[in-house]
Design goal:
It is found in: Endomembrane system. The chain has about 210 residues and is an alpha/beta fold. The chain has eight helices and six strands. The structure holds guanosine-5'-triphosphate and magnesium ion. Magnesium ion (MG) binds next to helix 1.
Length: about 210
């Protein structure tokens, strides 16, 4: 199928959700800008970042919604976050157990906004560079991810060596969305009807440049 020169670029809206301070802004910055921001302030409402990626000859605009973790900075925006969302990234901090146990609240909020089951979701444990401070064991996170049918990524927005792993989070979702949406007449039943991938952990050795799904 020939690509027309002026074919519009598709846009996928991906929201990043989780407690304040887990590193949502840093992760989205790493993916869209390629660097770790020196200093961040708590996000108010939402910050938009975007990156155009090319997959199998198609240019896709990934619109990342970096949402606020603090209740007071997000309450007026929540409806906007979930409207027409294509994929959801849930983030916790591997050095803070409460950010992991709160995931169930974030998942409930997402479910409460009627996000269709075909909308892919992934789980991200961030700040893995703080090796001596880890509170959330991988085994526990993996169990949780499995129970919720999500892939698990453990990564660091800070460590440059982990940047491919950060990219893999978003590229994995784009690959899934692209596959889902290229199947005609499957949009309403495609995702749940597909075989569900097993949750697994991506380490530095895997997922290089290719679709990790
Ligand atoms: N060591 C380490 N620190 C990180 C990492 N990611 C983020 N941080 C730090 O964690 C703090 C919070 O990061 P943010 O990205 O602003 O957190 P957030 O989730 O966007 O917070 P809200 O906007 O309030 O919801 C900052 O001091 C970051 O420098 C990481 O991978 N490793
Ligand atoms: Mg933020």
């Amino acid at each position: 199928e020939a690509t027309l020169p002026y074919e519009p670029t598709r846009i996928f809206k991906i929201i990043v959700i989780g407690d304040s301070n887990v590193g949502k802004t840093c992760l989205t910055f790493r993916f869209c800008g390629g660097t770790f921001p020196g200093k961040t302030e708590a996000t108010i409402g939402v910050d938009f970042r975007e990156k155009t990626v090319e997959i199998e000859g198609e240019r896709i605009k990934v619109q990342v919604w970096d949402t606020a973790g603090q209740e007071r900075f997000r309450k007026s925006m929540v409806e906007h976050y979930y409207r027409n969302v294509h994929a959801v990234v849930f983030v916790y901090d591997v050095t803070k157990m409460s950010s992991f146990t709160n995931l169930k609240t974030w998942i409930e909020e997402c479910n409460g906004h009627a996000v269709p089951p075909l909308v892919p979701r992934v789980l991200v444990g961030n700040k893995c560079d703080l090796k001596d401070l880890i509170q959330v064991p991988s085994s526990l996170a993996l169990k949780f991810a499995d129970a919720h049918n999500m892939l698990l990524f453990e990564t660091s927005a800070k460590d440059p060596q982990e940047s491919q792993n950060v990219d893999a989070i978003f590229m994995c979702l784009v690959c899934r969305l692209k596959a889902q949406r290229s199947l005609p007449c499957r949009d309403t039943e495609g995702w749940p009807a597909q075989p569900q991938p097993h949750s697994r952990r991506l380490d530095e050795a895997s997922g290089k440049g290719s679709c990790p799904c």
